[in-house]
């Protein structure tokens, strides 16, 4: 298996040590709880629709349990995570909360003793056979598993409007960064209002998301992963070159000062006023929820420079230490990890299932394409969505990007130094 990859295979032997002698902390009991509170940042659009499908199943299976949806709006959880931290510090943890697989789960929560060990639940539900072995590793610390993946998202997606592209003389998706810049010039000459759609609101996470993609596209996956292993320097020539690409991309937007959230900004694609948009595949679910049609109002391709690369993230659910309605939470986790639950949730959420046995006939053409790429592409974790970075680094990255944009997107060296300082602080 190639470095950094997570394949759609079930390798039970890889997880065997974690299962052997596992904790009994997640031993199931009948759900006699009268309430259940879930905490996410899925408050609108396709995200809320996906959550709603899962909630409907839960209510049908647990009719005596009142469902409490404690969603906090804000893309990538920029608002929700702050609220969650305050609640957990005050001893008021929700019964289950959303967290990204990778360092977000492992370093931000599990290593802090905030989550229950779910290894026994994995054994009882057979998830060691139905989830990819390497994905399970992304929720595992010291042999114990701490969250349940409900999906896989792709971060490095290029979106555009076919009719707008045709008017600009663009007949195929750009595959390289140079080709993308050539097409941006075509959009500009054709009078497209915003050749490069930018989303600068919601705590700058969407601009950090764009930077994360640019780093992979410019440097390649090995150099990118080296930023977190220490083999690539944040202040070295590779990052310097990537930041020139980033700076140039921003020049095709609203001078890097767009204050729209990702949903409002992305509407420029389906309305035909925007050229290209780099955003995760939750955008497709959002647009479909708004009535747009895939293939007519928008289409997709891997981000230029990342053809054959799948920059991934995974939403998972947890069992916090001290959850008031523990049995109700266990019922939610079992549903979230089930085939029925994942195939109800993901087609509406705009993601593919984390399970290996998903029924792809329920998914649209984009998601079928994503599933095929997930099975064969070089996989690279998302920084902006918690795979390669914990909450502390993500917050620092958002702040560094916000500072860069507010300064006119001119201080590339300063941005590199801020990112290096953020990584150094995490390592310490």
UniProtKB/TrEMBL annotation:
InterPro entries: Bact_solute-bd_prot1, SBP. Keywords: Signal, Transport. It is found in: Cell envelope. The keyword Lipid metabolism does not apply. One of its GO terms (cellular component) is cell envelope. The keyword Transport applies. Belongs to the bacterial solute-binding protein 1 family. This is Unannotated protein.
């Amino acid at each position: 298996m190639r470095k950094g990859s997570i394949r759609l295979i079930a390798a039970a032997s890889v997880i065997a040590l974690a299962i052997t002698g596992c904790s009994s902390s997640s031993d199931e009991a009948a759900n006699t709880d009268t309430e259940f509170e879930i905490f996410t940042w899925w408050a609108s659009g396709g995200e809320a629709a996906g959550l709603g499908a899962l909630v409907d199943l839960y209510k049908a299976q647990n009719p005596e349990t009142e469902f409490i949806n404690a969603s906090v709006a804000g893309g990538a959880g920029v608002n929700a995570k702050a609220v969650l931290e305050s609640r957990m510090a005050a001893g008021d943890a929700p019964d289950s909360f959303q967290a990204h697989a990778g360092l977000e789960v492992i370093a931000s929560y599990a290593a802090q003793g905030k989550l229950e060990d779910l290894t026994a639940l994995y054994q009882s539900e057979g998830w060691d056979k139905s989830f990819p072995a390497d994905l399970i590793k992304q929720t595992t610390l010291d042999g114990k598993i701490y969250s349940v993946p409900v999906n896989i998202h792709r971060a490095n997606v290029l979106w555009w409007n076919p009719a707008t592209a045709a008017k600009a003389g663009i007949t195929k998706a750009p595959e390289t960064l140079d080709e993308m810049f050539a097409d941006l010039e075509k959009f500009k000459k054709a009078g497209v209002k915003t050749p490069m759609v930018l989303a600068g609101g919601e705590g700058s996470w969407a601009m950090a998301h764009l930077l994360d993609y640019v780093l992979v596209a410019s440097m390649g996956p090995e150099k990118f992963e080296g930023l977190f292993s220490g083999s690539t320097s944040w202040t070295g020539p590779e990052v310097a070159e990537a930041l020139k690409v980033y700076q140039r991309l921003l020049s095709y937007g609203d001078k890097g000062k767009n204050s729209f959230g990702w949903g409002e900004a992305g509407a420029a694609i389906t309305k035909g006023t925007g050229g290209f948009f780099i955003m995760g595949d939750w955008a497709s679910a959002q647009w479909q929820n708004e009535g747009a049609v895939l293939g007519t109002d928008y289409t997709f391709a891997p981000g230029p420079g990342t053809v054959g690369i799948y920059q991934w993230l995974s939403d998972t659910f947890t069992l916090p230490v001290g959850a008031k309605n523990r049995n109700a939470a266990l019922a939610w986790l079992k549903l979230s990890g089930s085939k029925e639950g994942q195939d109800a949730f993901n087609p509406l959420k705009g993601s593919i299932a984390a399970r290996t046995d998903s029924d792809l006939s329920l998914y649209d053409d984009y998601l079928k394409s994503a599933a095929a790429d997930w099975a064969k592409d070089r996989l690279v974790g998302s920084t902006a969505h918690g795979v390669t970075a914990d909450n502390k680094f993500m917050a620092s990255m958002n702040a560094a990007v916000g500072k860069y944009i507010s300064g006119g997107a001119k201080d590339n060296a300063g941005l590199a130094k801020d990112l290096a300082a953020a990584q150094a602080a995490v390592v310490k």
